[in-house]
Amino acid sequence: MADDRMARLRERLGGVAFGGDYNPEQWDPAVWREDVELMRRAGVNLVTVGVFAWASLEAEPGVFTFDWLDEVLDLLHSGGIAVDLATPTMAPPVWLSHGHPEVLPVREDGQRFGFGNRLHYDPASPRYREAAARITDAIAARYAQHPSVAMWHLSNEYGPVSWGGASAAAFRDWLRERYGDLEALNDAWYTRFWGQRYTAWEQVEPPEVPRSWSNPTRRLDFLRFASDVLLECFTTERDIVRRYSELPITTNFMRFYRRADYWRWAQEEDVVALDIYPNPGEADSRVAAALNFDLMRSLKGGPWVLMEQAASAVSQWPVNNVKRPGMMRAGSYQAIAHGADTVLFFQWRASRGGHERFHSAMLPHSGTRSRTWREIEALGGELGRIAEVTGATSRADVALVFDWNAWWGLMETHGLPRNDFDYAELETSWYRPLLEAHLAVDLASFESALDGYRCVLVPNAYLVTDAFAQRLARFAEAGGTVVIGFFSGVVDERNQVLQPAYPGAFRQLIGAYIDEYWPARAGESFGVRFASGEEAVADWWQESIELETGAALAEFRNGLLAGRPAVVENRVGEGRVVYVGTRLEASALATLLLDTAHAAGVASVVADAPAQVEATMRSKGGADYLFLINHSETDAAAVRLPRAGVDLLTGAAVSGTLELEPLGVAVVRCG
Fold first, then answer.
1. Which percentage of the chain shows pLDDT scores above 90?
2. Which residues are designated catalytic?
3. Is this model's pTM higher than 0.90 or not?
4. Per 3-state DSSP, what percentage of the chain is helix, strand, and coil (rounded to 5)?
5. pLDDT digits over 327-373, tens only?
6. What residue ranges define each of the domains in the chain, with the CATH number in brackets?
7. How many CB atoms lie within 10 A of CB 147?
8. Among 115, 302, 328, 477, which residue's Cβ finds the most Cβ atoms within 10 Å?
9. Do residues 261 and 273 lie in contact, with contact meaning Cβ atoms separated by under 8 Å?
C-alpha cells in the first residue's frame, strides 16, 4: 500500500518534487499571490504548509479559524502547486500550556520547560495528546479531499523528552509491558548491585541527572521508552488522518538524532523523510550527509524524501557560513544520487523575525535579485530533465551496521573503559573510505536481513542482541565477509556483560578472546605491523587479545602489547571474519576495509575517479542512472565511465572519460 501511495504521488508531481516549507501565516495575505507567482517561476511543485500554524488555526480551545488556510490552499492549487499538509502539533499554542502547565516538559534536572521555547510539550501528557488529536482530526476532516493536498506531514522533527509525572507514569506502563513483573525488571536492571532493588512499581522513576553514577540499564530503557512514546504520538495522528485519506503520510527525521530509533519509526510511515543541514564551513561535511542519505534509503529500502535543507546559510552553528556558488546544487543532487525523489528546503520565504530570521530561504530577504534566488531558479528549471529517475532504486554489496540500541548502549549509559565514545563518528570513519572509493553501501540494523550482501561491516556493536550475533555468524558460515570494530559484542540487550570473556557475543566468530581493554593514555600511540609488511599507527584504544582459532593479521609493534595481535583474521565456515582491536589511522583503516571488501568481490560503481567525486547508481525499468558529483570547489575531475550513455542534464551522449568542472554534476543514463 505504501508503495502504491508513493507511486501515485510521483505520477501526480511528474518528476522530482521541488519546493519547501511555506508559512503563509507569517505574512500579510497580500504577499500570498506574489508567493505563488514566484513559486511557479522557480519551478516549485510541492510545498509543506501548516507546520507551525496551530495558534493561527485554533486561537482558543475548540474554536477553529480555517478561512485563511482555505484561501492559501486554493491559491496554491490554482497555481498548480501541490501541498504536503502538516499537522501543527509540534507548536502548541499558549492557551494550552498556560491553562494546563502539565503539558510542558520537565527537564532531566527537574526544571519545567517554559513556553516560548521550541518543542514545548510533553509527549506523554494526556492533555497534550487530547488537544493534538482534536486539531489533527479537524484538519484531516476539512482538507482530506482538497485538490491541493498530495501528502500528509505529521508534526515536525519529533524530539522532546520529559522527566515529569506523566512521563514517569508512562515509563512504568512501558516497563510493565516489556518485563511483565518487578522481579524481571530487577533482574534486567541488575538491581542487586548497590542494593537498588525495587519492591513496588510506584518506586520506579525516570533517571534524573546523575549526581554521581546511576544504573546504566535504567538509563538505557528510558531512551527506548522515549523513542516509543514519541512514536505513539505519531501513530495516533497517523491513524486519525488515515480515517479520512489514503494519501502518503510521513514525518521528518533529523541527522544523527539519538532519541528516536528510526528503524522502528520507518515501519510506521509510508515514506522516510529527512531534514539535514551539512555545515558548509566543514570541508568534509558531505561525508556525514551521504551516510545519512544512505541510512534514509535503507530504512525502508527505497526512495525517500529530502524534506528540509538550507538554500545557503543556517543559523544554528557558532559561525554560519554560506553555501558558496554551486554547493546547494551539488548537495541537492547528492541527495537524489542516494535515493531521494525530492529537493525541498526550509523555507520558501525568509522570516522577518523569530529565532531563524537569518536562516537562508529559497526567496531570501534580498528577493529575486539575490544570488541564492538565481541558483534556486536555475535548479528548479533543470530538475525536470531527470524526471525519469524518480522511483529508481539502488543496490549494494556492502552493509554497514548502524543500530540505535548499539548507539545508546555505547554513549548514554556511562561506566565504560572510556566514556568519550562517539558512535556517529565511528560509523562515519568506516563509511568515509567506502564513499571515496565509490562503493555502494546500505545501512543495516540488528534486525535487518543480511542475505545478498558480500560484506558486512560492524564499526561498533558494544551492545548486541543474540539474534543479530547468530545472524552474523550464519552470514559468515555461508561465505560472507565480516569486519568488526573494537569493543563490540560485549553486553546483551540488558547491558549485562556476556559470559565467558570478552567479546562474549563474537568470541567464536573472531576466533579470539580479550583479556583486558586498554584505553590509551593522552597522546599515546602504537605502531602496528601487518602480515603483508605494511606499517601503520594506531591510537586511542588497544585490546589485549588472546588468539584461539584466529590468526594475527597485524600485531602491535611497540609498547606493553608489542608482538600481540592488533587485527585478527578468522575463517568461519565458508566465510572470513576480521576483527580490528585498535583505532587505526585513517589511511590504514581505509586500506584494510577496501582490501577486505574487494577480496569479497565488491566492485566500485566507477573504477577510475578521484576521491572528491561521488559516484552512485540508481536503476529502474532496465535503465541504470549513474550520478557523478565533483565536490571540489576548485579542481576539475576526470571520470572514466563504465559504460556509454546520455547525460540527462545536458542531453549529450557521453562515453570514455567524462570531465566534471568544480562542483559539477552529471546524471548519465546507461543501458
1. 95
2. 157, 308
3. yes
4. 35, 25, 40
5. 999 999 999 999 999 999 999 999 999 999 999 999 999 999 999 99
6. 2-166+211-389 (3.20.20.80), 398-599 (3.40.50.880), 613-670 (2.60.40.1180)
7. 12
8. 328
9. no
